[in-house]
Design brief:
Strand order of the largest sheet: 3-4-14-9-10-13
CATH class of one domain: Alpha Beta
Strand content: 15-25%
Number of helices: 19
Largest sheet: 6 strands, mixed
Radius of gyration: 22 Å
Bound molecules: pyridoxal-5'-phosphate
Helix content: 40-55%
Length: 484
């Protein structure tokens, strides 16, 4: 496999999108969440892939070899290449498909990339299975421990628990809202019996859970005492792990030529990984951003303006987001990588609730980017149509991306690759509703859990119920974490 063509031994440094936080190495960025100036870390320069020289051999390479080739320039020398290669191989051995992220031909130049073959059935496993292992290696090197605390409305909690379970340098506490996550999602968290995993049911809403986590991070003495850490989606290592499958799919399908991607989007982490691949040299002609009724991104790509409004629940709950944190990384590039300008842009957005980019920036953005919003009725119709036409079940998030791709595909001669972000069995109620017969007769289909989870609904559950009270939750974490 070709290695970092720049041959730079000092490695890539990481800078904040707001320009006034210290530059860090990969190892530091891995363990750091938000930059101290409130920005997000990005690489100071982009490694490059020599597309012409590598696409043909790359189309034959395994996913793991592609992953090592694509990510090594980002992590060396914080991680030695051999150590990193072993971690990557170990992370993707947990996937239940030989191709890790298999591609399905839908005909007419349309393809589906299935990102849901990991342990918890959503694409977040692709990044978190790697990040959990990188955490452990880096913490062991530094003789440090971390107490990971997170709030979840569903998918992130289970993926983070699977990534951290049984890792000696980590304890993980996940707060979920009572009665507001699906049975499958709750059981994926509560049936893990590892002693370093703590699922906590909070008597409150998802926002209450998130406020408790924020309050723990703001409580300095507590934070330092327990070595608080996070695995949220602004972590650069999560974006980096997702770059790989854009390279992989473009080589497998593009024949060296341009390809397009459609991505069901929430926090903008997944599709920004695609943009990173494009900057490295992958010929991407179009990114389609699919949103549900929470359509701030659709507005941004249409008009250049984004305006905050309230979050409304939809059938694709992992995209029920209005402020997409990772968009700041794209804005950094759009504003000429000028940290001060980004800080001002974000301050206007937060202060006035609305902000716009220059019309000429919007014009160049529009050459590659477009967005569309898909409502719940259209989501159900799309699930039913793909079942009828292709005999396949898709989850509601994937359905949003598929319909967005149909609506906005710009060039029919460029293959369009839609990203399937969750397994249909993770959202059985929406799938069942979509496929129930219109006359109100009995349900026709209930998507089955894959074999490794087939007994999920009968496994013993283990979790702690706590009130929505900061002192109680902090005391629980103190008592149950592994002592230093
Ligand atoms: C998290 C998630 C998304 C949104 O991904 P972002 O990186 O936040 O844009 C889409 N679909 C599913 C199933 C998810 O779990």
């Amino acid at each position: 496999m070709p290695s970092n063509p720049s041959g730079d031994v000092s490695g890539i440094r990481y800078v904040s999108t707001r320009g006034s936080a210290p530059e860090l190495s990969f190892g530091d960025v891995l363990l750091t969440g938000l930059a101290s100036d409130g920005g997000l870390y990005v690489p100071s320069k982009s490694p490059t892939i020599d597309w012409a020289a590598t696409h043909a051999a790359g189309a034959e390479a395994s996913y793991v070899d592609t992953a090592i080739e694509v990510m090594a320039p980002f992590v060396v020398p914080s991680f030695e290449r051999d150590e990193f290669a072993a971690i990557v191989a170990d992370a993707y051995a947990t996937f239940h498909h030989d191709d890790v992220v298999p591609l399905v031909d839908l005909g007419g130049g349309s393809h589906l990339m299935e990102l849901f073959w990991g342990p918890t059935l959503a694409f977040k496993d692709v990044a978190l299975q790697l990040v959990g292992r990188l955490f452990e290696a880096e913490l062991n090197r530094r003789s440090q421990r971390l107490t990971i605390v997170g709030a979840t409305s569903g998918d992130t909690g289970s993926a983070a628990i699977e990534a951290c379970r049984d890792r000696e340098a980590l304890d993980i506490f996940v707060l979920f809202p009572k009665g507001r996550v699906s049975d499958v999602q709750r059981r994926q968290m509560t049936t893990v019996t590892s002693s370093n995993v703590h699922a906590i049911e909070i008597d409150g809403t998802f926002d209450d859970c998130q406020d408790l986590v924020k309050a723990m991070f703001a409580h300095e003495s507590f934070r330092d005492d327990v070595h608080l850490g996070a695995v949220n989606s602004i972590n650069w290592a999560r974006v980096m792990a997702q770059v790989v499958y854009y390279v992989w799919a473009a080589r497998k399908i593009g024949g060296g030529g341009p390809v397009s991607f459609s991505v069901p989007t929430g926090n903008f982490g997944n599709v920004f990984a695609g943009e990173t691949a494009r900057r490295m040299g992958v010929p991407v002609s179009q990114f389609v951003v699919g949103s549900n009724r929470n359509d701030i991104l659709t507005q941004f790509f249409g008009s250049g303006r984004m305006t905050i409004s309230g979050v409304e629940p939809s059938l694709s709950p992992s995209m029920d987001i209005q402020v997409s944190s990772n968009l700041e990384r794209l804005v950094f590039d759009l504003l000429g990588r000028d940290g001060e300008a980004v800080a001002e842009f974000m301050m206007t957005f937060r202060g006035e609730g609305s902000v716009a980019i220059d019309p000429h920036v919007l014009q160049s953005l529009s050459e590659t980017w477009s967005g569309t919003s898909v409502d719940d009725v259209e989501t159900l119709e799309t699930i039913a149509r793909y079942n009828a036409d292709h005999g396949m079940l898709v989850d509601p998030h994937t359905a949003v991306g598929l319909l967005a791709a149909e609506r906005l595909r710009a060039n029919p001669s460029h293959p369009m690759i839609s990203l399937a972000t969750a397994h249909p069995a993770k959202f059985p109620d929406a799938v069942r509703r979509a496929l129930a017969s219109p006359d109100g007769g009995k349900d026709v289909v209930r998507p089955a859990l894959p074999e490794h989870l087939s007994d999920l609904m009968t496994r013993d559950e283990q979790f702690t119920e706590l009130p929505n009270d900061l002192a109680t939750v902090e005391a629980f974490v103190q008592t149950n974490r592994t002592p230093d």
